[in-house]
Amino acid sequence: MKKEITFLGIETSCDETAAAVIRENKTETAEVLSNVVSSQIKEHEVYGGVVPELAARAHMENIEYIVDKALRDSKVSLEEIDGIAATAGPGLIVCLTVGLNIGKSIAAFSKKPFLGINHLEGHALSPGLETKIEFPYLLLLISGGHSQYLIVKDVNQYEQLGTTIDDALGEAFDKTAKMLGLGFPGGPAVEKFSKFGDKNLFKLPEPIINRAGCNLSFAGLKTAVLRESKKISNDKLKYSLAASFQFTINKILYKKTKIAIKEFKNKTKKKEVKLVVAGGVAANKSIRENLEILSKEVNCKIFYPDLKFCGDNAAMIAWAGIKRFKKKLIDDMDVSAKSRWPLDINAPYMKGPGLKL
Ligand SMILES: Nc1ncnc2c1ncn2[C@@H]1O[C@H](COP(=O)(O)OP(=O)(O)OP(=O)(O)O)[C@@H](O)[C@H]1O
Ligand SMILES: [Mg+2]
Predict the structure, then answer these.
(1) How many angstroms is it from 5 CA to the middle of ligand 2?
(2) How much is the pLDDT for 52?
(3) 280: Cβ below 6 Å to ligand 1?
């Protein structure tokens, strides 16, 4: 009988210190034996954003306890674990180094294989924790640092169809919340207060909506929110601006996802499309409902990770570790932290002056 594989995952790329023990079961989905996430929201709240040095210090203070708790909660001994996976990038170098070093130390001490994981591959494969999804599928990755459409051809095989040319979607949510004084982290705050506003009250721009394929842009929308926010005199208008921002995002994602689906069909020659929406922003219910409508219209199947696997977590890192381990994609101990690490290394860099769309 084939042995079930069990991995310890560690995640410290930004402001969550996380560790998890995951086992792949016979249906090739995951048994989550433990999933510990310690968020640093309190530390960064007063600054309205993540402060790298504070985040790194908090990771250092917490990491041993979090890893130990994940192992204890799982009731699995270190001897029973087949490998250690830790996020190696992209992210804040000072933060990544904390998880990477402890992962390497545990691997060296226990003589287990070590894997340095691309955090974005963690997000990309995360719905597979609960549902087996055959490759290829179309991925909409919407998080704090990235907004991309990719073809996921297999583990370790990605083709980028489109990306943001300026801000990431999570960043746009966070900045909107900050401008409107709605709180931190911004995404959940904008979603919450939008319910009390009129989404049709403000007409906001939809940047590059009719050009540049399925590339995305949110900077112009953010500037428009800033301009309107200065004219606002009461809470009702504030909530309406948040609602109008979220509504505009949904119009953009609807149109661009439709284009991405078409490109996916052309490139893969597949008639049926599976769309996976992952990353922190995939927790947003209005975005889920909006893309659900689109998926019915164009007859594509849509998958989301469970809410606890949308934001940063180590379950998805352990899971990517298991998937890579099965393909013998094991790393050396000299794997280092990377601040930038695209899933498709051949994709053009889409930011900065001189960009032609
Ligand atoms: N309900 C929500 N609606 C909109 N945005 C949300 C929601 N919940 C979380 N977010 C946003 O998701 C982002 C965090 O996602 P995630 O943890 O995946 O990002 P990250 O790890 O910082 O970036 P990356 O994964 O690109 O490296 C934040 O910008 C947050 O505001
Ligand atoms: Mg993330």
Answers:
(1) 24
(2) 84
(3) yes
Q: For residue 16, which atom of ligand 1 is closest to its CA? A: 17
Q: By the 8 A CB rule, do 325 and 83 touch?
A: yes
Residue 312 Cβ < 6 Å to ligand 1: yes
Overall residue count recorded for the chain in this entry: 357
Q: Which of 45, 142, 173 has most ligand 1 atoms within 8 Å of CB, for mutation?
A: 173
Mean per-residue pLDDT for 93-108? 97
Q: In sequence order, which ranges of the chain are alpha helices (DSSP H)? A: 41-45, 52-74, 93-110, 119-125, 169-180, 186-194, 219-229, 235-268, 285-297, 315-326
Q: What is the mean pLDDT of residues 328-356?
A: 90
- Ligand 1 atom with minimal separation from the 279 CA: 18
Q: In angstroms, what is the span from residue 170 Cα to ligand 1's centroid?
A: 5
Asked if the model's pLDDT at residue 63 lies above 80, the reply is yes
The pLDDT, as a whole number, for residue 351 is 78
Two tokens, residue 37: 């996430």
Quick: pLDDT tens for 292-339: 999 999 999 999 999 999 999 999 999 999 999 999 999 999 999 999
Q: Is the CB of 14 under 6 A from ligand 1?
A: yes
User: Which CATH code of 3.90.79.10, 3.30.70.60, 3.30.420.40, 3.80.10.10 fits the domain covering 137-304?
Assistant: 3.30.420.40
The segment(s) of the chain belonging to CATH 3.30.420.40 are: 6-129+309-326, 137-304
Looking at residue 353, its pLDDT comes to 62
Beta bridge mates, 21: 8, 34
* Residue 235 CA, ligand 2 centroid: distance in Å: 31
Q: Rounded to whole angstroms, how far apart are CA atoms 124 and 121?
A: 5
**Is the beta carbon of 146 within 6 A of some atom in ligand 1?**
yes
> What is the third-level CATH fold of 6-129+309-326?
Nucleotidyltransferase; domain 5 (3.30.420)
